[in-house]
From TrEMBL:
This protein's record includes keyword DNA-binding: yes
Biological function: Involved in cell division and chromosome segregation.
Record-level GO BP terms: cell division; regulation of sporulation
Location of the Sporulation transcription regulator WhiA N-terminal domain: 21-99
Taxon lineage: Bacteria, Bacillati, Bacillota, Bacilli, Lactobacillales
Domain Sporulation regulator WhiA C-terminal: 217-300
Keywords, alphabetical: Cell cycle, Cell division, DNA-binding
InterPro entries the record matches: Homing_endonucl, Sporu_reg_WhiA_N_dom, Sporulation_regulator_WhiA, Sporulation_regulator_WhiA_C, WhiA_LAGLIDADG_dom
Keyword DNA-binding appears in the UniProt entry: yes
Name used for this protein in its record: Probable cell division protein WhiA
Family: Belongs to the WhiA family.
Any one GO MF annotation of this record: DNA binding
Domain WhiA LAGLIDADG-like: 122-214
Domain of life per record: Bacteria
Length: 303
């Protein structure tokens, strides 16, 4: 199950019958039609549980008996699309939910009452996410929450609504609409709190912390590996130079303090500078060991 589905199922398990939530779903997933008998309304979703939730809210709040219809998509996913269909009292439903414009179409923005009332705003955001929200899988390490709107002004109103809850929401236009999105993990977790998806929020944070811990371990391992590689490369260079000196002028030609360091380096190529210093018969710092190794390299380079 995707993380988006997990969040939506938690919302459905905690949601009550709420007009603002229903208004968001109809605004974002509803289509109006016109027959000889008047307006019709079809609310579409690919989630059977969401379809049932829409049905129950319409039945309870608007006192109508919708039909649930479906069709199979013909694309590669072949998902089933559910349509909650109403062909009576549609004009009253639009007015009741404050969705109608002056021509009995959908108003494109969000009603002012929702923008100023925190509880109404929370409910509307729940409905908006149920209708058209997605969250990128948190273990991808690239955090993104998106809600798609057909209308740009609706997407901008959604962003303003999120900003009321101190979320850094942004809007981007697409060729067929606009997207309101969050890109920071903390904002996404706070959004889940706003829409009362607390279990999903905890799961998101756990995955995020585990991902960050793995990244920290990998970075530490990479640094350690790089350090080991540098040590080995430096060690092989000095060993090759020591062999060159041995084959030409002989190690005994070196000063005694260089001879012992050369012997330890050849015998223990894996030793760090500190380990070489600790193995000497006389006290020497890491800097002192490094200085003498450079002297050996210089002698070899001049041969």
């Amino acid at each position: 199950m995707s993380f988006t589905t997990t969040v939506k199922e938690e919302i459905l398990s905690t949601s009550t019958v709420d007009g603002y939530e229903l208004a968001a779903i109809i605004k974002m997933s509803g289509n109006l039609g016109l027959t000889s008998n008047g307006l019709t309304l079809s609310v579409s979703t690919e989630n059977a549980k969401v379809a049932r939730h829409i049905y129950e809210m319409l039945e309870t709040l608007c006192h109508v008996k919708p039909d649930i219809r479906y069709h199979q998509k013909t694309n590669l996913k072949k998902n089933r699309v559910y349509h909650v269909f109403i062909e009576e009292q549609v004009d009253k439903i639009l007015s009741q939910l404050q969705l109608a414009d002056s021509f009995f179409g959908f108003s494109t923005g969000i009603d002012h009452q929702i923008l100023v009332d925190d509880e109404a705003g929370r409910s509307y955001l729940r409905g908006a996410f149920l209708s058209a929200g997605t969250i990128r899988e948190p273990d991808s390490g690239k955090y993104q929450l998106e809600i798609f709107s057909i209308y740009l002004d609706h997407a901008q109103d959604l962003a303003n609504l999120m900003k009321k809850f101190l979320l850094d929401a942004k809007v981007i236009e697409r060729k067929n609409g606009a997207v309101t999105y969050l890109q920071k993990a903390d904002d996404i977790m706070d959004f889940l709190i706003v829409i009362n998806a607390m279990a999903a929020r905890e799961t998101f944070e756990e995955i995020k912390l585990m991902k960050e811990a793995r990244n920290d371990i990998n970075r530490a391992n990479n640094v350690e590996t790089a350090n080991i590689t540098r040590t080995i490369n430096a060690s092989m260079k000095i060993i090759n130079n020591i062999s060159k000196i041995k084959d030409t002028i002989g190690l005994e030609s070196l000063p005694i303090e260089l001879q012992q360091i050369a012997h330890i380096r050849v015998t223990h190529p894996e030793y760090s500078l500190q380990e070489i210093a600790d193995s000497l018969d006389f006290p020497l710092t890491k800097s002192g060991v490094n200085h003498r190794l450079r002297k050996i390299n210089k002698i070899a380079e001049e041969l």
